[in-house]
Amino acid sequence: MARRPEHMAPPEIFYNEDEAQKYSNNTRIIEIQCEMAERAIELLALPEDEPCFILDIGCGSGLSGESLEEAGHSWIGIDISKAMLDIAVEREVEGSLILGDMGQGMPFKPGTFDGAISISALQWLCNADKTTHHPQKRLYTFFCTLFSCLTRTARAVFQFYPENPEQIELVTTQAMKAGFYGGLVVDYPNSTKAKKYFLVLMTGGVAQLPQALGDDAEERRIAFTKKREMIKAARGKPLKKSRDWILQKKERRRRQGLETRKDTKYTGRKRSGRF
Amino acid sequence: MKLITYNFLTSKCIRGVKVGYPLKLKIVQKEVVQTDFNPEFITRLLPRLDYPTVHMAAELVDCAEGVPKELGENYAADQDLLQKLHHILLEIDIIEGQLECPETGRIFPITQGIPNMLLNEDEV
User: Fold this and answer.
1) Structural domain containing residue B73
2) ipTM attached to this prediction
3) Strands of the sheet with B107-111, listed across from one edge
4) Number of domains in chain B
5) Residue A217: pLDDT above 80?
6) What ranges does the record give for the region Disordered, renumbered to this chain (chain A) (predicted)?
7) Do A51 and B40 touch (CB under 8 A)?
8) Is residue B41 situated within a structural domain?
């Protein structure tokens, strides 16, 4: 399994000029980022046809911001990597950019944003990169300050790559402690590759979580199979005197080069009562 | 950094700072960029902005002419005012300068249009 980037170096060092270049050149990375951003915006459930003001946490080179622009919203992006922000400036994104550490809190006035999105950033907070870092405390500071800078009908959607169930637990606990409602939406839970975790947080009281993609209740149920067929399949041989059994016998005779009548709709059919 | 962002920024993340608003803005270099005027967006945003700070920023960039000190009741109908506010908030980009915390005097530098809000570990 590939090493996780957050194990290699702190984000401000990992996302150096080389790594940042990938986010402006590599079409595969760009495609994945845009796809996830679009899904995150969908999960935000913003009012239609209204230009909103969105916070993009860990905006990087502004790929997710571009998706926001396409949806007609204005945004402010915050990121810890200077190299990534430089790329964003180069790409002439419309949003404002701020250099900041999410673990130190969001430096905004209360009630500023209609929503917040974050693509592949939250897992960085779960690591202690410096001796003074305390993941739990940093997550709590982050969620607390984020809660205050959102309006009371806003949502915050985080796409992230949790390393293990404990990390999910850690993140959600701190978010609930900060006053958020909501939970995890897992898209394509049965696929290893397409599986995506979205933490959907709401400020305005309990509401139903959005439906995950590729997770129909129908699909999860095991299809009903006839007991007879199951036994048949298990034995590997068709039931004696059945049409299948006859067809198999005829097939074997043909393979042996013996004279065999061809298969028709009358093969294996019961005689009528006249005989 | 656009002045709209300036209006939202605080320094309350520093330990011991209660309000941290408004930050003192010092401009070394600024730029004027053209953006599309969207009156609906400005009207929706205005109640969320701190208007005295908008006015203060307008004076700082010499665009305060015709911008009232206090926002009237029916600003949504005043297209001229909205146009002016649009120019101040969304078209003036501060390239170099600094922000200063009103309580601790901590300086946040602005370089290449990006304010650096990173804190040292002992300040959190």
Assistant:
1) 3-117
2) 0.91
3) B24-32, B92-100, B107-111, B114-115
4) 1
5) no
6) 244-275
7) yes
8) yes
Record the tokens describing residue B116, joined without a space: 């650096």
**Residue among B90, B101, B1, B91 at smallest CA distance from B49:** B90
Can you give the pTM of this predicted structure?
0.81
Q: Which of A174-183, A199-208, A228-237 has the highest mean pLDDT?
A: A174-183
Domains of chain A: which residue ranges?
A: 5-252
Per the CB < 8 A criterion, the answer to whether B100 and B106 are in contact is yes
**Structural fold of domain A5-252:** Rossmann fold (3.40.50)
Residue B90 is assigned to a structural domain of this protein = yes
List the beta bridge partners of residue B113.
none
Q: How far is the C-alpha of B115 from the C-alpha of A157, rounded, in Å?
A: 25
Within chain A, residue ranges assigned H as helices are: 5-8, 11-14, 17-25, 27-44, 63-70, 82-90, 135-149, 165-177, 217-220, 227-235, 243-255
- B14 located within any domain: yes
Test A108 with B41 for CB contact under 8 angstroms: no
Q: Looking at the complex, report in whole angstroms how far the Cα of residue B54 sits from the nearest Cα belonging to chain A.
A: 14
Please report where in the chains the tokens 């400036």 appear, as a residue: A89
